[in-house]
Amino acid sequence: MRLTKPIAAIAVATLGLALVVDVASQPTAAADEMPNAVPTPLLNEDFTGDRLQDSNFKLLGHAGLTNAPDGTVFAPKVGLDKGPNGANVEQTGTRNGAPGPDASVDGYLQLTDNNHNKVGAVLYDHAISASGGIDVTFEMYQFNSTTPATSNTQAPADGIGFFIVDGTANLDTPGAYGGSLGYAQKRDEDGTWTRGVDHGYLGIGFDVLGNYIQDDPECRGSTGGESAGGLKKKCYYPGTFSPAGSDWKDNADNTITLRGPGNGFDGYEYLTSTIVLPSTKKPTTTLPGLLGGPSSHDPRWTGGITGWAGMSEDKKMERLLDESKRLVRIIVSPEEKPLVQVFVAFDGKRETLAESAPLLSYRMTEPMPENFKFGFAGSTGHFTDVHLIRMLKITTLVDAPAPALEIVKTVRGESVGYGVGETIAYEFDVKNTGTTTLTGVTIEDDLIDHGTLAPSSPVTLGPNETQTFTATHKLTSEEVTAAGTGTPVCQFVNEAHASGQFGAQSVTSAPATATVSVTPCGAPSPDPTPTPTPTPDDWAKGPPLPPVGGTPGAIPAVAASIAAIGAVYLLAASRRNRRHRIR
């Protein structure tokens, strides 16, 4: 049998629509079925040998590799120490209190030993792209102070600074040492000024002593000011001022502090720090552990080590290093104004770091340079410490922690016909849809009645865990009347969101609403016009088709109708052909 053209066209259309419906119903590939992204290595320098692997590194001041033999270009350098009557004299050693060269073990990059008045830095003067974000990890050691905090007149010092500068800058000199940790500017007590690092973008201070957080008395974070001999003699702070006091004794020890962009004598403003502000003016740290390690000069620590007096010097150093290892991670998101987060594993273990929440989280307000350079710096002064780093690795950012919350809000029971004084019961299903554990998870809803939220205390949610909250609200006369008009409203809409914490980072869900109808609300809406029942005459013209422009759900009905028409025509054609053959 050969179909006529109209019948063939209907058959093809029917088949085509059936194929369209079938394809549309197939699931698409899920995002989680795609291969995982792999971080791109940007730099890897372990500092464990007797020479630097990358020639773009510059060792400045007294910095050097502990495994480099004395007298070689990569070895730590001699500095000055306090002599009789306060005069500075050349130091006789370069590794006081620090590991010596030993090819049988991995070495370190030594920024300073525990001599007084030591400064050291390592700068990477080669631009690296920031387009994929930055994920930085390294080991950090601050320990073996000759001035341990055994009294109010001494303390370990100063700290280690990590800083990022614009990749177009010539990075050949760090910023001021001491409390500026190689990043910011500084005015000394005698009025002498030292510039901050050129074209700095971000400075992170791992501050054992606690001066990096302070603006005054050293004018960190200042801009402009009066000049005397070409240098400022008075500090002005147009931006955010540090919450730390301006007196030397107002420092905040054992803190991590961020400072912002700056150049020369201007900028480097305080951004945030791991502190709380009590009723007094001296901030206190929120860190869960100590940035600094123990000291062989501290009898409180050595007295607790069995057999310390009889240990070999190598064993003592091994014990000090084990106790002082801190593993640090810094991530900078790949955005114009990135989110900066700092993590520290105080036990030095990678598995701890992987599970850690950020100790510091801050959204930059200035654009990140397209390319960056970086450096580390450490220093001692009247107080001392050994400052070491190693195992530096920088990659693009692909596995950043992704905290997220989702909330679904519903009305429990009926959602129609509420009047003044009646109580609406709400239910909130909050799910941790991120990859991290969240603490302090609760509901933010301005319209629920006080004391009705349950559970009333914030909860902790692991990834994919859900918590159901409940609360109620009693309608008031103001809520069922349009403001200022006295006209009744038809609906009462209530919005809520969920909030929580991932370490120092606040996490908030998208808002969710629940709506109930309110009575009285004018005349009821008329019933929709009923669909007339088809008559036999109507059906004689063919089955009715749905209106054009229906919802996607109408497509199967359209397909079924066209298929039915096609079947009718096919059956009719078949009968006609059969009658022709009988004749």
Automatic annotation (TrEMBL):
- A matching Pfam family: DUF7507
- Could you list the residue ranges that cross the membrane? 553-573
Q: Where is the composition biased (Pro residues)?
A: 523-535
What are the residue boundaries of the DUF7507 domain, all occurrences included? 402-503
Domain of life assignment: Bacteria
Respond yes or no to whether keyword Protein biosynthesis is given for this record: no
Ranges for region Disordered: 518-548
Q: Please give the SUPFAM superfamilies that the UniProt record associates with this protein.
A: Concanavalin A-like lectins/glucanases
Q: Which InterPro entries does the annotation name?
A: ConA-like_dom_sf, DUF11_rpt, DUF7507, Ig-like_fold
Q: Which GO terms describe its biological process?
A: carbohydrate metabolic process
The UniProt keyword set, sorted, is: Membrane, Signal, Transmembrane, Transmembrane helix
Q: In this entry, which stretches build a coiled coil?
A: none
The signal peptide stretch is 1-30
Q: What is this protein called?
A: Putative repeat protein (TIGR01451 family)
- Native species of this protein? Xylanimonas ulmi
Q: What is the lineage of its organism?
A: Bacteria, Bacillati, Actinomycetota, Actinomycetes, Micrococcales
